[in-house]
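4.2 Preliminary Data

To establish feasibility before requesting continued support, the project team ran the inverse folding procedure on a target of 243 residues. The structure was first converted into the token representation described in Section 3, and no sequence information of any kind was made available to the design step. The complete token record follows.
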């Protein structure tokens, strides 16, 4: 634990002059990025945000094992969500818009997408936003008021279906934008001898629907860090994933 504190402190200092700084010790590797890793974006496939698929790249995160061990990964990220829903309604007709944004994260060792680190893809942040409204609309002319009984002593009755009645759609809009930091532990057992390349990948998924209104959804991945440590489980111990 004392050695880990020292490594982290050096990495943070290095971030003052670099977007990503990687420091490797005898039993651990740390990379810290101090800039936005993925700017506000709609849906996109899995993208490497920490580490690099090319081992020779300066941002590659690698750890060397002299014997078979388990690898433990701690991933911390700033996770931002943006959702916007707009509804339009008139004549008492209900209108609904929805928007959803999700950020998922996984850890790969040596580019193996078939067996990512347990427990596989993890949702770091997600939001589903739905807005509905039933509005009468903005009355534009007097034709909407009908004197059905021709009695001057009783007021006209509002009728949105009257001939010549003009109603302008009323609008309601809801916009939410949040940013918070989240962390999760991943593990990969029985990693063999050699130098292994680590990638932290993320993907953004957005979804929405609208009738008369509109929707928008985006997500952002801000500053981040990954800590890789090697461990040896006691003989007979197993990694158990709860259903």
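Position-by-position output of the design step:
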């Amino acid at each position: 634990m004392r050695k880990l504190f020292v490594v982290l402190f050096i990495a943070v200092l290095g971030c003052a002059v670099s977007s990503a700084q990687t420091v490797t010790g005898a039993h651990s590797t740390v990379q810290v990025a101090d800039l936005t890793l993925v700017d506000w974006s709609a849906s996109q496939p899995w993208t490497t945000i920490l580490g690099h698929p090319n081992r020779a790249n300066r941002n590659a995160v690698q750890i060397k094992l002299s014997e078979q061990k388990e690898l433990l990964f701690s991933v911390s990220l700033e996770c931002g969500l943006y959702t916007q829903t707009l509804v339009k309604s008139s004549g008492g007709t209900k209108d609904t818009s929805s928007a959803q944004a999700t950020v998922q994260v996984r850890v790969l060792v040596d580019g193996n997408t078939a067996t990512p680190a347990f427990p596989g893809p993890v949702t770091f942040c997600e939001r589903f936003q739905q807005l509905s409204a039933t509005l009468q609309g903005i009355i534009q002319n007097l034709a909407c008021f009908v004197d059905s009984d021709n009695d001057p002593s009783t007021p006209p009755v509002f009728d949105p279906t009257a001939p010549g009645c003009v109603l302008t759609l009323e609008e309601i809009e809801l916009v939410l934008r949040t940013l918070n930091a989240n962390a999760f532990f991943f593990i990969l057992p029985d990693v063999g001898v050699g130098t292994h390349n680590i990638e932290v990948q993320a993907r953004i998924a957005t979804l929405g629907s609208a009738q008369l209104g509109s929707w928008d959804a985006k997500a952002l991945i801000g500053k981040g860090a990954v800590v890789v440590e090697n461990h040896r489980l006691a003989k007979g111990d197993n990694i158990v994933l709860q259903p």
